[in-house]
Design goal:
heterodimer; A: 379 residues; alpha/beta; Rossmann fold; 2 domains; 7-stranded mixed β-sheet; 5-stranded mixed β-sheet; 15 strands; 39% helix; globular; B: 282 residues; 11 helices
């Protein structure tokens, strides 16, 4: 039955918190840090109401560990942080990958390195979201560019975390986290929520890491008839250590494939005026809003510009990027860093001539700057 | 004695991989016996381990298990326990996990008084990596990274946990095996954060480098170095530091984290979840 749309005027961080609760999250552990703290504050209040638990941990190492513990106990869990906290979370992000524990990590990016410009926006954790934790691993990271997407992509992040039993990073930035816009919560048919596949066989036959056809093992929470087992060390289907080269190859391969085989479903992009464009702007997060404005202004000046906005940055949407770049004469990648995702664009498009527009002074990229770049590169 | 405790042990995984003369097996058996005595079933128990020799203990226990990262057993266990208070959650840690890399988590788990039970095996050095000094290695002792003596003083885990707010804290040694089991049993049944520290043997490294080459030497050392809380009262501060004080440091009944959180939830519900109307003495 269709219901009245729940229209609100919210901040991005507020929409992220509401998206998490709509997706079924009932546990938050975190350490307050600007510009993400609103999410912790909202969680501390709303989780009391929703029957969940809010825990303010002693640091982000503990926050990530508690989130993983809660999810192992069968409760959908998340945390929210920014640069310095995201660095501390890298250790146990790897633990979530290896133990196949679903969880969502929100990173409202701010300017670094280290304490940096503590309250100012940046998009400089792009590669950290991919490779921050040690060892070979797959990664899923989603970049919202509006308050509506803060809500929608948080739900999507939980759904991917549950479906693939892996951590998912919601990689927002300070601009999106703190902007206020209209947002529709729930949607006409409610929110589509995915839950991890539960084990339903004989209790004694449960093997915690026996993967299904999709490469994802079935889950059994402790306290039920089967014994749950999670292991940070290399393990086989039983959950017990197995250090043989054959097993290690199979496990690393499966952890990678369960995500990358579903790449075409996970990779979302948005295209604006790309049908006939000579110049394409490839961007993500808050920067993509400036890119769209710049493309429209360029069109008014008779320059055929278009935009490819990357909603999913990890796995990288190779196909969409290659397809759009094939048609365009010039490719510009504006980002709030010294040039991180541009390398992926060059690789996917096989084009060393991709041009960057890079800003790393704590200020967002505005449409005028992108327009000037468009005029500069057209020949 | 009843053999019911064997249902908590994974017979097929035994014998364990620890060195001859290691005290870990004594503590492992004490845990299994204490769980059986508490009348628990394996499905109601979760053990969380870190990294190190004692971090392998979950390999031998037939319960739910989470083998985590070095030093993070307590926050992982916290995430489990606050969400599933009906489960018995044990964090098995060595002195590295509990007092060194995870020292901060020990302070806050105790302060939070979360209902996790920490079973800490303190062998005064890092056995797994070759016998380097840890934060509990006594000053002056030789290890593979303090070959001329440790310039730092060791941390007193039990007293730190007591000061930080744990409900139940006790310390014993693997020489006093029956006492270890009794303390673990009490910790499991006590509310809130419990910690049982067990001073243990490491003849392979700590013992060998400090004049105790055999397990027997180390057991005799534990027998002689241990001083009960009562006996320790008559010792000078300096003498006390040279001994291992054993006994029950505290056995409080303060409400645990979950009880306090639910009390807050009741207050919030009565306010209609509106913090503006709650009188908390502002």
């Amino acid at each position: 039955m269709a219901r009245e749309p729940d229209v609100r005027y919210l901040q991005g961080n507020e929409a992220i918190a509401e998206g998490a609760f709509a997706a079924g999250a009932r546990f938050f552990a975190g350490y307050p840090i600007t510009p993400s703290s609103e999410i912790a504050e909202i969680a501390s209040r709303r989780l009391l109401e929703l029957g969940g638990v809010y825990l303010q941990m002693e640091d982000e190492l503990a926050s990530m560990a508690a989130v993983i513990g809660a999810s192992f106990a069968g409760v959908k869990s998340f945390t929210a942080t920014s640069g310095p906290g995201f660095s501390l979370m890298q250790e146990n992000l790897g633990l979530a990958v290896m133990t196949e524990t679903p969880c969502v990590v929100v990173n409202i990016q701010r300017s670094g390195p280290s304490t940096g410009l503590a309250t100012k926006p940046a998009q400089a954790d792009v590669m950290q979201a991919r490779w921050g934790t040690h060892g070979d691993h797959a990664a899923i990271a989603l970049c919202p560019c509006s308050v509506q997407e803060c809500y929608d992509l948080t739900v999507m992040a939980f759904n991917y975390a549950e479906r693939f039993r892996t951590p998912v990073v919601l990689l927002a930035d300070e601009i999106v986290g703190h902007m206020r816009e209209k947002v529709v919560l729930g949607g006409p048919r409610g929110v589509e929520v995915v839950d991890r596949r539960r084990y339903s066989g004989e209790p004694e036959g449960y093997m915690p890491y026996l993967a299904g056809e999709d490469g994802v093992p079935a889950f059994a929470a402790p306290g039920g008839p089967s014994l749950g087992r999670a292991n940070s060390s290399m393990h086989d289907e039983t959950g017990f250590a197995n250090n043989t080269p054959e097993n290690a190859t199979a496990v690393i391969r499966r952890l990678h494939d369960k995500v990358y085989n579903a790449r075409s479903e996970i990779c979302h992009v948005k295209e604006y005026m790309t049908g006939d464009c000579d110049i394409v702007l490839i961007s993500y997060g808050a920067t993509s809003r400036a890119a769209r404005a710049a493309a429209m202004r360029a069109r008014e000046k008779g320059l055929r510009a278009g935009c490819l906005t990357l909603t999913t940055i990890w796995p990288f949407p190779d196909e969409a990027v290659a397809r759009v770049c094939r048609r365009a004469e010039r490719v510009i990648v504006p980002e709030m860093n010294t040039g991180q995702l541009i390398g992926e664009v060059r690789r996917a498009a096989c084009r060393p001539d991709v041009v960057g527009l890079n800003k790393f002074n704590g200020l967002g990229i505005d449409p005028g700057e992108i327009l000037r770049k468009i005029e500069e590169v057209r020949t | 004695m009843s053999r019911a405790y064997t249902r908590f042990l994974l017979g097929k995984a035994l014998p364990h991989f620890w060195c001859p003369g290691c005290g870990n097996g004594i503590v492992l058996a004490a845990i299994a016996r204490a769980l059986a005595a508490a009348g628990l079933s394996p499905t109601e128990v979760v053990v969380v381990t870190g990294i190190g020799c004692w971090g392998k203990a979950d390999d031998y226990l037939n319960v739910n298990a989470f083998h985590g990262t070095h030093g993070r057993a307590l926050p992982i266990a916290t995430g489990i326990k606050v969400n599933r208070p009906e489960l018995t959650v044990l964090a098995l840690m060595g002195d590295g996990d509990c007092a060194t890399i995870g020292g901060n988590h020990l302070l806050h788990a105790a302060r939070r008084n979360v209902g996790v039970k920490a079973i800490v095996v303190n062998n005064f050095n890092y056995g797994m990596t070759g016998g380097q000094y840890s934060s509990t290695t006594p000053g002056g002792k030789a290890t593979s990274t303090s070959p001329f003596g440790n310039p730092e003083e060791g941390l007193d885990i039990a007293r730190v946990a007591e000061a930080a707010g744990a409900n139940y804290v006790a310390r014993s040694t693997v020489y006093h095996a029956a006492q270890v089991e009794a303390y673990i049993r009490e910790a499991i049944s006590a509310p809130g954060f419990g910690l049982v520290e067990v001073a243990s043997t490491c003849p392979t490294y700590f013992g060998r480098l400090n004049g105790m080459r055999t397990a027997t030497d180390m057991m005799k050392w534990l027998r002689d170095v241990a001083a009960s809380l009562n006996a320790a009262r008559d010792l000078s501060e300096e003498e006390r530091r040279r001994r291992i004080v054993i006994g029950k440091f505290c056995d409080r009944r303060a409400p645990d984290f979950n009880q306090r959180y639910e009390a807050i939830r009741r207050v919030a519900r009565e306010s209609g979840f509106n913090p503006g109307v709650v009188n908390i003495g502002r």
